[in-house]
Each structure stands twice: as C-alpha cells, then as structure tokens.
C-alpha cells in the first residue's frame, strides 16, 4: 500500500517537507526528529521496505551507493567542520519507517545518549553502516 507510506509521499513532494536533494532515483530531507548536529535521510523514490530487500546485484548496489554519495555531499557541504560523519541503515525489526532510508549524521549526537539508537548490534539487527551494507551487496 504505497499510498499509506509517508516516505513515498515525501518522495513525490506531496508533503510540506523541504527536500534538500532530488533526482530521479533518490530524495533527501532533514530527519523530522534530528539526533545530531546535522541529521539527514536519503530515501529511494521507489518504495523499497528495508535493507533485507536489497540483493547482491548491480541495480541495488548502484542505488545504495548513490544514496551514500548524496548523503555525503550534503553533509560535507552543510557541516564541513564536523569531526565525524556516520551513514547507515536500520535493520529489521529496528526500522522506524518501512521505507528504506539512509541516516546521515554529522556528529556530535544531540543529546549524546541518542547514539544508542544507531549502534550496530551485530547479528541481532540494529544498525548497519552504509559501507558494510555496500560490501555485502557488491555484485
Ligand atoms: Zn514508501
Ligand atoms: Zn530510521
């Protein structure tokens, strides 16, 4: 039910959410509830639920890689002095919204305890760094 998905609506620009980047594959916007100095989300325009739906194939690898590049260029432009950047995805069942989204952080986390939400919990799920995901789905 794509019509019920908030992120699909954002990608179609049918909400008031300001978009920081748009192209035919992805859009980017600020997290509604920012957890860091800068906290952006990059999402695919077409509905993909979670990282579990990404396969080891060129199409998916290119998409994820493009999401990461868009996130990086936005943060490097908007927070050039940040000491640390982090990029990653929730892994089910820890995803908050069921539309694939890359979290892009220019640290520090604000407030500091927020980092627990984005810790990698290994095989239990949690959070996967974008580079790790790319390695996993590289064809
Ligand atoms: Zn969606
Ligand atoms: Zn999330």
From TrEMBL:
<dbReference type="Pfam" id="PF11969">
    <property type="entry name" value="DcpS_C"/>
</dbReference>
<feature type="domain" description="HIT">
    <location>
        <begin position="6"/>
        <end position="118"/>
    </location>
</feature>
<feature type="active site" description="Tele-AMP-histidine intermediate">
    <location>
        <position position="103"/>
    </location>
</feature>
<dbReference type="InterPro" id="IPR036265">
    <property type="entry name" value="HIT-like_sf"/>
</dbReference>
<dbReference type="InterPro" id="IPR001310">
    <property type="entry name" value="Histidine_triad_HIT"/>
</dbReference>
<dbReference type="InterPro" id="IPR011146">
    <property type="entry name" value="HIT-like"/>
</dbReference>
<keyword id="KW-0547">Nucleotide-binding</keyword>
<feature type="short sequence motif" description="Histidine triad motif">
    <location>
        <begin position="99"/>
        <end position="103"/>
    </location>
</feature>
<keyword id="KW-0378">Hydrolase</keyword>
<dbReference type="GO" id="GO:0047627">
    <property type="term" value="F:adenylylsulfatase activity"/>
</dbReference>
<protein>
    <recommendedName>
        <fullName>HIT domain-containing protein</fullName>
    </recommendedName>
</protein>
<dbReference type="GO" id="GO:0000166">
    <property type="term" value="F:nucleotide binding"/>
</dbReference>
């Amino acid at each position: 039910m794509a019509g019920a998905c908030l992120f699909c609506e954002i990608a179609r620009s049918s909400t008031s959410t300001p978009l920081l980047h748009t192209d035919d594959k992805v859009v980017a916007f600020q997290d509604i509830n920012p957890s860091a100095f800068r906290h952006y989300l990059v999402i695919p325009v077409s509905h993909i639920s979670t990282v579990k739906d990404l396969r080891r194939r060129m199409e998916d690898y290119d998409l994820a890689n493009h999401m990461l590049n868009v996130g990086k260029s936005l943060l490097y432009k908007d927070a050039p002095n940040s000491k640390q950047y982090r990029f990653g995805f929730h892994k089910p069942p820890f995803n908050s919204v069921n539309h694939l989204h890359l979290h892009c952080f220019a640290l520090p986390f604000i407030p500091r305890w927020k980092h627990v939400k984005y810790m990698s919990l290994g095989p239990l799920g949690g959070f996967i760094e974008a580079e790790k995901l790319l390695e996993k789905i590289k064809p």
